[in-house]
């Protein structure tokens, strides 16, 4: 049994910042720390107040640290799909060896990936991920992993993911000011969809819809590749504001009512389930039924699903055989799957992590960032060891875990099929790239 690998993911959303600590040992993931803080300083997925965002990050990180007594220094950062572009790219290199044994190694793979990244970008764009679709060795294509094969010419067809340089630098600055280093950066819908969807769904063609607080992310997978990612500036906060106006109550109360009594499917909502609502500016409370607020919720969600259908038609993505998978905080609303089936006219299911303590669709992105980072590190063998130091009162691996920590351990299913454990040389560390970006900003 090898030493456990520790990963920390950071999901900076418009309504909440989530920090998840995961420990991976023998392909089993144990969620050992969770932080969830209200997000301030972010609107529609973009940072509008750096200092407020920094404080939100610190609160989420502090919650996760206090849960297990571990100091967090490096994080896996998720970047939202807003301002993201997907571009096809290709890299070609010669397999040069001193002897006649032209075996392709990790060094050759890294060189061809570097060649694929040589695509010129506009000054306002920044590269964040390069996702290989397949490799070609001489005349043989559709290869997932060419290492160990013999050949003279190595090619890669890949997808380059870029985002707005301004948006990325603002996020990096917030993470830096929060006292954290960045281990890796991944596009959130890429990491989320890789594990929220089954391999069959990723191959057949499926849309992952992540409904957050202020935005909804649409990610389309087909042939095991991310084909499209976009953001609609509508989310659960719109429902909360509608309830607040109609019920004449505070936003805080409206959010509580939405979560406790909300039902997305009007036909199945109950007239008998009645609850009291405090009215702003009055001492008295008014009573409403679940069916009454269900009409408000369903109308807003129907509007959202119409916008999603419009996006499908614009991108020629309608009629995918894999259907739709819903996730995100709003996906836990009762009846939302039935409403989505009626509106989108396709199969719909809800995706949520299956780990004690984070069995909620709102944690899908944060948890899958850890799983994606582990799979990526296994493929490139670039894990840097324990990058999070235990605090003075608890040495990792020697202290007795708390009852809460023991309860949060859960056996993970088998890892993604097309990743294999190897002992090849590591790929270039992303932390070095981040340092270069900051150096360019300061210069």
TrEMBL record:
<keyword id="KW-0132">Cell division</keyword>
<dbReference type="InterPro" id="IPR003494">
    <property type="entry name" value="SHS2_FtsA"/>
</dbReference>
<dbReference type="GO" id="GO:0009898">
    <property type="term" value="C:cytoplasmic side of plasma membrane"/>
</dbReference>
<keyword id="KW-0131">Cell cycle</keyword>
<dbReference type="InterPro" id="IPR020823">
    <property type="entry name" value="Cell_div_FtsA"/>
</dbReference>
<dbReference type="Pfam" id="PF14450">
    <property type="entry name" value="FtsA"/>
</dbReference>
<dbReference type="InterPro" id="IPR050696">
    <property type="entry name" value="FtsA/MreB"/>
</dbReference>
<comment type="subunit">
    <text>Self-interacts. Interacts with FtsZ.</text>
</comment>
<dbReference type="GO" id="GO:0043093">
    <property type="term" value="P:FtsZ-dependent cytokinesis"/>
</dbReference>
<comment type="similarity">
    <text>Belongs to the FtsA/MreB family.</text>
</comment>
<keyword id="KW-0472">Membrane</keyword>
<dbReference type="GO" id="GO:0032153">
    <property type="term" value="C:cell division site"/>
</dbReference>
<feature type="region of interest" description="Disordered">
    <location>
        <begin position="390"/>
        <end position="430"/>
    </location>
</feature>
<comment type="function">
    <text>Cell division protein that is involved in the assembly of the Z ring. May serve as a membrane anchor for the Z ring.</text>
</comment>
<protein>
    <recommendedName>
        <fullName>Cell division protein FtsA</fullName>
    </recommendedName>
</protein>
<feature type="compositionally biased region" description="Basic and acidic residues">
    <location>
        <begin position="415"/>
        <end position="430"/>
    </location>
</feature>
<keyword id="KW-1003">Cell membrane</keyword>
<dbReference type="InterPro" id="IPR043129">
    <property type="entry name" value="ATPase_NBD"/>
</dbReference>
<feature type="domain" description="SHS2">
    <location>
        <begin position="7"/>
        <end position="196"/>
    </location>
</feature>
<dbReference type="Pfam" id="PF02491">
    <property type="entry name" value="SHS2_FTSA"/>
</dbReference>
């Amino acid at each position: 049994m090898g030493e456990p690998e520790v990963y920390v993911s950071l999901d900076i959303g418009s309504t909440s910042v989530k920090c998840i600590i995961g420990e991976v040992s023998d392909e089993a993931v144990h969620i050992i720390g969770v932080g969830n803080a209200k997000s301030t300083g972010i609107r529609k997925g973009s940072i509008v107040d750096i200092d407020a965002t920094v404080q939100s990050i610190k609160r989420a990180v502090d919650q996760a640290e206090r849960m297990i007594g571990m100091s967090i220094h490096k994080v896996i950062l998720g970047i939202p799909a807003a301002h993201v572009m997907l571009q096809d790219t290709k890299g070609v290199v010669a397999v040069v060896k001193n002897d006649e044994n032209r075996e392709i190694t990790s060094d050759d793979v890294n060189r061809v990936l570097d060649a694929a990244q040589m695509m010129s970008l506009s000054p306002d764009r920044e590269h964040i991920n390069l996702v290989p679709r397949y490799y070609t060795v001489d005349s043989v294509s559709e290869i997932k992993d060419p290492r160990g094969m013999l050949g003279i010419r190595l090619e890669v067809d890949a997808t380059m993911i870029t985002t707005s340089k301004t948006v990325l630098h603002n996020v990096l600055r917030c993470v830096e000011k929060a006292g954290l280093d960045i281990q890796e950066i991944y596009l959130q819908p890429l990491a989320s969809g890789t594990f929220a969807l089954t391999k069959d769904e990723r191959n057949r063609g499926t849309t992952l819809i992540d409904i957050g607080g202020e935005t909804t992310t649409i990610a389309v997978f087909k042939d095991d590749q991310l084909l499209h990612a976009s953001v609609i500036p509508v989310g659960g906060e719109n429902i909360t504001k509608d309830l607040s106006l109609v019920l004449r109550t505070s936003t805080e109360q409206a959010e509580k009512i939405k979560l406790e009594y909300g039902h997305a499917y009007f036909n199945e909502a109950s007239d008998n389930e009645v609850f009291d609502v405090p009215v702003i500016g009055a001492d008295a409370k008014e009573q409403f039924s679940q069916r009454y607020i269900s009409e408000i919720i369903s109308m807003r969600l129907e509007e959202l699903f119409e916008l999603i259908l419009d996006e499908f038609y614009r991108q020629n993505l309608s009629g995918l055989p894999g259907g739709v998978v819903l996730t995100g905080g709003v996906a836990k609303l009762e009846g939302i799957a039935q409403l989505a089936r009626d509106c989108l006219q396709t199969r719909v299911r809800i995706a949520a992590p299956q780990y004690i303590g984070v069995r909620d669709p709102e944690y899908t992105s944060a948890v899958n960032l850890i799983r994606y980072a582990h799979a990526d590190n296994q493929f490139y063998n670039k894990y840097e060891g324990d990058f999070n130091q235990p605090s003075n009162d608890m040495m990792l691996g020697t202290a007795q875990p708390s009852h809460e920590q023991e309860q949060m351990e859960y056996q993970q299913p088998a890892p993604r099929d097309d990743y294999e454990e190897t002992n090849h040389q590591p790929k270039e560390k992303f932390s070095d790239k981040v340092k270069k970006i900051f150096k360019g900003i300061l210069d």
